[in-house]
Amino acid sequence: MKRVAVVILNYNGKGFLEKFLPGVIEHSPHAEVIVADNQSTDNSVPFLKEEFPDIRLIINEENGGFAKGYNDALKQVKAEYYVLLNSDIEVTPNWIEPCIQLLDSDKNIAAVQPKILAYADKERFEHAGAAGGFLDTDFYPFCQGRIFGQTELDKNQYNQNKEVFWATGACLFIRSGAYHEVEGLDEDFFAHMEEIDMCWRLKSRGHQIYYCPNSTIYHVGGGTLSYQNPRKTFLNFRNSLYMVTKNYEGILFMKLIKRLILDGIAASVFLLKFQGRHFAAVFKAHIKFYGQLRKFLKKRKKEKIARTQKVTVGTYKGSIIVQRFLGGKKSFQELDSSDFY
Fold it and tell me: Which residues on adjacent β-strands are paired with residue 141?
């Protein structure tokens, strides 16, 4: 059994596999490289069997999205550490070792992400994860190197190991024991923000999440679902409400009312930009959420029982919306460090 298993979840990503899988194999000499296919219809499976016959291939019985896809696949993988890796990522030499060394250094560290730069602009951070994730007072996610759609150039400003709130699912190093301790990713999320929810649950049980700048990868981004797709808007808004309902420790009603107002403002901005489908996606996200509220209140009770500590590290005391759109702050470094826990 290998200590490290690199597991690529694939759905109609034949082009990305053809382009990036050889590099993953080359630069992961001491890891087991596995592709888990989520019922692709683009000949990914025949391609893998013909071109990479030595690679272990797991074929999931159904496409349950990112969350269920990984949960189903990882039940079949034996390793001390899992690496969840998107198919649209170019890895670099020595990309695995620094993250594993950081995990090995402290048993309380459950998950680590590398520095994630954009494949199309390799001097700029990529949207999905950048240099580690945080949540603001209203639980909107942002990153070192990325606030909303604004990404920064990498000028070595985030070149220190740092405890963060969440690590991206685009490239997530995680202890297999910790993954299964929290029962993996929440399959009701389908895709998007499920890794933030899992990191929150890990932290509430006493684990830590870290960013490791000594490992670098390049992410195409939007490989399965484009950033401009209203479906992504729907999933992000709905899943954010799911996540807050499950994990927020305060008075939930007041937080949901505030989120309703803020999401309403966001929807209005979409409308003003003549992005009617995105406006509709926000509305549909809230309708879907309220239909599932009872189910998530049950999950909230379960999390309350499992929680061993209050989660603070990696949270921002202010509003990232206010700082970005009213304060004009476009970079993480412009935020006051004293406003972080």
Answer: 135
Q: How far apart are CA 37 and CA 73, in angstroms?
A: 9
Quick one: pLDDT band at residue 1, thresholds 50, 70, 90? confident
Q: Give Cα separations from 6 to 21, 36, 72, 79 (angstroms).
A: 11, 10, 15, 10
Residue 203: C-alpha distances to residues 37, 87, 160, 180 (Å):
30, 27, 21, 14
Report angle CA 197, 202, 203 to the nearest 5 degrees. Answer: 100
Tell me which residue has tokens 């679902």.
225
Q: Please give the full DSSP string across 154-182, using - where no structure is assigned.
A: -SSTT-S-EEESB--TTEEEEEHHHHHHT
- DSSP-based three-state secondary structure for 89: strand
Residue written as tokens 């412009």?
A: 334
- Gap between the Cα atoms of 160 and 182, Å rounded: 28
Name the domain count of the chain.
Answer: 2
At 7-47, the pLDDT tens digits run 999 999 999 999 999 999 999 999 999 999 999 999 999 99
Quick one: the chain helix, strand, coil %, rounded to 5? 40, 20, 40
| Residue 330 forms part of a structural domain | no
Q: How many Å from the N-terminal Cα to the C-terminal Cα in the chain?
A: 39
**Inside any domain, residue 199:** yes
| 8 A C-beta contact, residue 201 and residue 309 | no
**Cα 195 from Cα 238, distance rounded (Å):** 14
Q: Of 209, 195, 218, whose CA–CA distance to 312 is shortest?
A: 209
What's the domain range around 9? 4-219
Query: How many residues are recorded in the chain?
Result: 341
Average pLDDT over residues 291-317: 96
Closest CA to 316 of 135, 163, 167: 135
Residue 337 in domain: no
Compute the distance between CA of residue 167 and CA of residue 211 in angstroms, rounded to an integer: 7
The answer to pTM > 0.90 is yes
